[in-house]
Amino acid sequence: MKITGLKVMVCSPGRNFVTVKIETDKGVFGLGDATLNGREKAVAAYLESHLTSCLIGRDPFDTEDIWNYLYKGAYWRRGPVTMTAIGAVDIALWDIKSKALEVPLYQLLGGKSRNRLMAYTHAQGQDLAETVEDVVAVKEQGFRAIRVQSGIPGLKKVYGVSDKESYEPAVKSSRPVEENWSTAKYLEFIPKLFSAVRKEVGADIHLLHDAHHRLSPIEAARLGKELESYHLYWLEDATAAELQDRFRIIRQHTTTPLAVGEVFNSVYDCHQLMIEHLIDYIRMTVAHGGGITPMMKIANLASFHNIKTGCHGPSDLSPINMAACLHFGMAINNYGIQEYMGYPQETADVFSTSYKFADGYFTLDESPGLGVNYDEKKAKTFPYEKAYLPINRLEDGTLWDW
Ligand code: KDG
Ligand code: MG
Fold it and tell me: In whole angstroms, what is the distance from residue 264 CA to residue 270 CA?
């Protein structure tokens, strides 16, 4: 089999997505997700200008060699744009291989390690009462695990909370909108929030929280410690992780489980976190992590250090990435949980999927490949719209982590 073409398609059915379609001389094609929120066109250009010509004529079954060719061959290694482009190609190649062999992708990655995959979703509210109410509503929908984010008293607009029904961080505008932040106000409020939520929902539900890289290591340690009695499933992105050894301080002080990695794109972003047992969940997602090929290796390394997966699965990655994460999760032993925010109807109309979601769990059927179809005609009716993730400032105007 030979690769005959690569198409890069950008559409905005509710939000922007970049989709790669790799075609072959046998008529089998594969799909990959190349969406990088707020930087979509950079990945599309990388694919079109630099990768397409390297792939024509190659055997799509050579996933390991092609991955290394694109990664090592560029000389310029890592980075979100490069790794998302390589990731999309790799996902599409695995889609082709499993479709050609007429098996679901997970069969090529180790087979079934479980029957269903637990997912968590988001609950949010402008204040404590509204957030508790939303957690209860989400629990009633059947979710077994819920990420809880809330407005903070005294702050106008914070991460994880919107006035819409579901949280969508990117805003269609010519420049980023601004959120605001006070670590002191946040740290004062969050333990009270989890005390109220745990009291309301009882012990039999997993609660998660995302600090979104805003705390220093010692502040994160304090939060982890103060949340211990509410038994979180995880505290996510407790501190920014450019320096992995910052997690040592948090780890030394708290038994609250730690998750990190949605902005990582290489094993070198989490190697020290793993070998020093500094985290419990690795949140890298397949599309941004360079594809199935490196993610299998990362999951294997994690498995030797009692670390489970918890793939990033926001609505700003397409259902193609979601399917890739689910096949990956189905096959590995150290699957933890999958993030799932659901998709608006326009998105579901463009991307039809064979994975099913009910009562807090995903299931996969026997459809070959990833089991995702992309309606190119419909996608063209939703042209790209420029959108940005917000930025974040302290109350005195200092630019802060988002
Ligand atoms: O594009 C960025 C969002 O996907 C991210 O901010 C969402 O933190 C997030 C999460 O945990 O889903
Ligand atoms: Mg997050």
Answer: 8
The parent domain of residue 47 ranges over: 3-104
Pocket test for ligand 1, best of 162, 262, 337 (most atoms within 8 A of CB): 262
Q: Which CATH number goes with the domain that contains 185?
A: 3.20.20.120
Q: Are residues 149 and 239 both part of a single domain?
A: yes
What is the residue with the minimal CA distance to atom 1 of ligand 1? Answer: 37
> 144 and 54 in one domain?
no
Determine whether 24 is exposed, middle or buried from the number of CB atoms within 10 Å of its CB (0-12, 13-18, 19+).
buried
pLDDT higher than 70, residue 166: no
pTM for the full model? 0.98
CA 15 – CA 38 distance, rounded (Å): 10
Q: Separation of 237 CA from ligand 2 center, angstroms? A: 7
Same domain assignment for residues 85 and 122: no
Dihedral pair phi/psi, residue 269, rounded to 5°: -80, -20
Q: pLDDT averaged over the chain?
A: 97
Q: What is the gyration radius of the CA atoms in the chain, in angstroms?
A: 21
